[in-house]
Amino acid sequence: MKALRNIAGYVLGGLLFVLLLPTLMWLASGMPELAVHIGALRASFTGILMLGGLSLSVWTIVYMKTRGKGNPMDAFGKEIGSRTQHLMTDGPYRINRNPMLTGTLTYLASFCIWFWTWQSVAVWAVFFAIMFIQVLTEERRLRKDFGDEYDAYCKQTRRF
Predict the structure, then answer these.
(1) Least C-beta-crowded within 10 Å: which of 1, 66, 116, 127?
(2) pTM
C-alpha cells in the first residue's frame, strides 16, 4: 500500500507540474498556436530553461528518494509518503533549499517565455504564491524534525 501511494504521488505530481500547469497557462493565454515560429533566440532560451528545470527537478526527486530515503514533500502539513530520514544538504541541495521547486518554477517560466503573455505569467505567479506557502509549512516541519542542523543549513543556503 505504501509503495502504491508513493507511485501515485509521483504520477500525480508529474501530471500536475509537467502537463496540467503548462496546459492551464496555454488556456489562460488564449490557446495560442503552439508551433508558431518564435525566433531562434527565444526558442533556444525556452528549450534551455525547460530542460534545465526538468533536469533539476528529476535530479532532486531521485536524490531525495535514494539519499534522503523519503518522499519529495508533504502537502501543506499532510504526509504524502515517507518523510526523509536525513537532512539533505549536498547534491542539488547545495544549490538552494528547494531545488525541486526551483526546477519546476524554471520549467514553468519557459512556458511564460514561449507563450509571451501576461496570463501565463499570472498563472506562474499564482503557482509560486501557493508553493511559497507550502515551503513555509515544510520549513516548520524540517525545523521540528532536524532542529539546529536545519537552522545551520538555512543560514548558509538560500531558500530559492
Answers:
(1) 1
(2) 0.87
What pLDDT digit, counting tens, does each position of 117-134 carry? 999 999 999 999 999 999
| Relative orientation angle of helices 99-115 and 40-67, to the nearest 10 degrees | 160
CATH number, residue 70: 1.20.120
Residue 53 belongs to what domain range?
Answer: 2-156
C-alpha cell at 133: 506557502
Q: Mapped to the 3 state alphabet, what secondary structure does 64-91 carry? A: HHHHCCCCCCEECCEECCCCCCCCCCCH
Contact assessment for residue 2 and residue 81, using Cβ atoms and an 8 Å cutoff: yes
Q: Which segments within the chain are labelled E, that is strand?
A: 74-75, 78-79
- For the chain, the domain total comes to 1
Instruction: State the number of CA atoms in the 13 A half-sphere of 132 facing the CB.
Output: 7
